[in-house]
Amino acid sequence: MTISEINAYPAYIPTTLDIGPAQAAASLSCCVIEVKTEDGVTGYGYTAITDEEVIVSIIDNLLAPDLKGMSALDREAIAERIYWMVSPRGQTGYGSHAASGVDLALWDILGKVTGQPCWRLLGGARSEVPLYVTFGFGSFDREQLADAARHLRSDGVRRLKMVVGHHALKRVAAGASMSDILKEDIERVRVVREAAGDDADIYIDANCSLDPASAQWLDDRLKDFDIAFFEEPLRGNDTRQLANLRARGTRIAAGQNEGQLFRFRDLLTSGAVDVIQPNVVICGGLTVGQKVAAMADAHQVQLANGGAFPFHNMHLHGGLANGGLVEWHLISVEMGRSLFTDLPDRDGDVLRLPETPGLGFGANLDALREFAAGPLSKGRGKG
Ligand SMILES: [Mg+2]
Predict the structure, then answer these.
(1) 3-state SS, residue 142
(2) According to the model, what pLDDT value does residue 108 have?
(3) CATH number for the 119-358 domain, one of 1.25.40.10, 3.40.50.1450, 3.80.30.20, 3.20.20.120?
(4) 37 CA to middle of ligand 1, Å?
(5) What distance in angstroms lies between residue 305's CA and the mean position of ligand 1's atoms?
(6) Is residue 105 within a helix (H) or strand (E), and if so which, with residue range?
(7) Boundaries of each Mandelate racemase/muconate lactonizing enzyme C-terminal domain copy (predicted)?
């Protein structure tokens, strides 16, 4: 299983979000990493919410020349080697994205070699995982949000996530009013709660775009809407400030963009989160994801998928006993359908895991080559 070749395919994918009567243009960017072995087995890894051109450069110039000749089965040895190449002084960021893409390809290879799906290799805790559906994007107006929520409820979805504080601090820096943004958020949550009904679980996500005072102000005014968790309310996932917010009774979820184990440890030990959200396309792949899950287990903190990309994260949550909710992020699902073949589909808010060896789906090589030759996002399509 000697690695003979590693390739990176960047992709910027414009798509249309189509939720029954609610439609909007959307886009996402990602990078697919292909690892080939001398035995003819090929694995496909993946990373996203980053700059795909930077990841391609890391793979092409640093990782591919160095990892050729190693065994594709030596995931820990490769993870350690990548760490010292891209994060030698504890940097977070691009390094863990590149490491995730390689690691997922190695797990895909392991599954193909052993004839088992990755979720079973991780432990086979369950053959289907519960989903929540992320639908409430900033591009929808209130009416579209309500239409989409009603449509999803009629399609068997009870768990719904929506964005609040959409790029708030960035917009405020450009002259927007935080007060106006938050007041509109209250109305958006109100129409979703009314459309979804009292028995729906509604999650909100600020994508690290609020300051503590604004997050508290908003949270106080959303108390009547029974929010299931408030995901990444604060800039930079500041652990101390998240812990302060949580101490006021807000149920906090965070961690999707973290790439160092100590950052997850700090979120857990500081009491900053009710739900920790390692994303295997960002945190360092399934190899790191299972370590975060073990820490979460020791702290009796719930595990869930945040940051989208259910087709990779479903394996972690199906494999481990403390696996939790997987995020059916509608834009990332559409993106996955543009790049991969034989993807599983949801049944209401449940996803049955594939029995196909490896990650359980194939790469559409024509699409990968076409997207790689096309325009890059230039930082626009980061989900
Ligand atoms: Mg999120």
Answers:
(1) helix
(2) 98
(3) 3.20.20.120
(4) 35
(5) 9
(6) helix 94-114
(7) 142-252
